[in-house]
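Good morning N.,

You mentioned wanting to compare the apo and holo forms, so I went ahead and generated the holo version with phosphoric acid mono(formamide)ester. This is what I fed in:
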Amino acid sequence: MKRFTRIADVANLDALLSEAMDYAANPWRSADLGRRRTLGLVFLNPSLRTRMSTQKAAQLLGMDTIVLNAGADAWTIETRDGVVMDGAAGEHMREAAGVMGRYCDILGLRTFPGLVDRDYDYAETVLEQFVTYSGVPVISLESATRHPLQSFADLITIMQHRPVVRPKVVLTWAAHPKALPQAVPNSFVEWMKGAPVDLVVTHPEGYELADEFVSGVHVTHNQDEALDGAHFVYAKNWSSYADYGRITNSDPSWQITEAKMALTNNGKFMHCLPVRRNVIVSDAVLDSPRSIVLDEAANRVVSAQTVLAEMLKALA
Ligand code: CP
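and this is what came out, ligand included:
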């Protein structure tokens, strides 16, 4: 595996999932695979889980890690070509990524969307430049439009907790005071479409995700109808794709409460975290045995370890 930025980068999802289950059962089984290899983790935006889980995954494989909080500690990076760099940016991505590729065998990059220019964000300009100019395998640590390590961890968690072979999985929007990216819901849909689940997406009018993700997916504006009989409820806010990056609905009734969970088939509650309590989900749900958010976070180590192991094998 040369890059892990979207589901299309995975040649065989069943095989990758099988590897993940083996790492979940025996995290130290490849403790020497990454010896004398260096992983660079570059964060243009904040992170708790991705930073710690990916470092932990590298440790389990015997890798060394270098973490760069590039958004705070490095030079501001220019991504446009042919510009006179007399503004805020002190370095171009061509050199910045090229240098990092000389220091590291594998690189990870976190880069959020600006939520202003949809074409720029959905072209994955920053991530694609990083891949091109670094010259080494790259893992997305969440990009403008996708969060594949999170989605892979979500899939592992669903497979571990599923009460039936083909569970009903609901992705539901919930209101939030800040405009958030579409990366997590886009990616979740992309991964669930390839998984043995029945997926339903529910959100208010105006929050339709891009066709490239939800084409062929059952989408409804009726949250209660979606939750009926669900085995898993995945809550997440996202800003509008059509009215790009804007908040057009703040209806608090989309919050996941005990009453909403009562509509499900003993459903489990999921969220990628961080989550705002009593905004996205009530305390009563998040603190109940229905919540498997900590298992999802724990599986971030498993998803990262599995992907890193595939990349290390390709380097060997
Ligand atoms: N879920 C997730 O990616 O968390 P962080 O933003 O804290 O890394």
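The chain has two domains: 3-146+297-315, 151-296.

Happy to go through it together on a call whenever suits you.

Best,
F.
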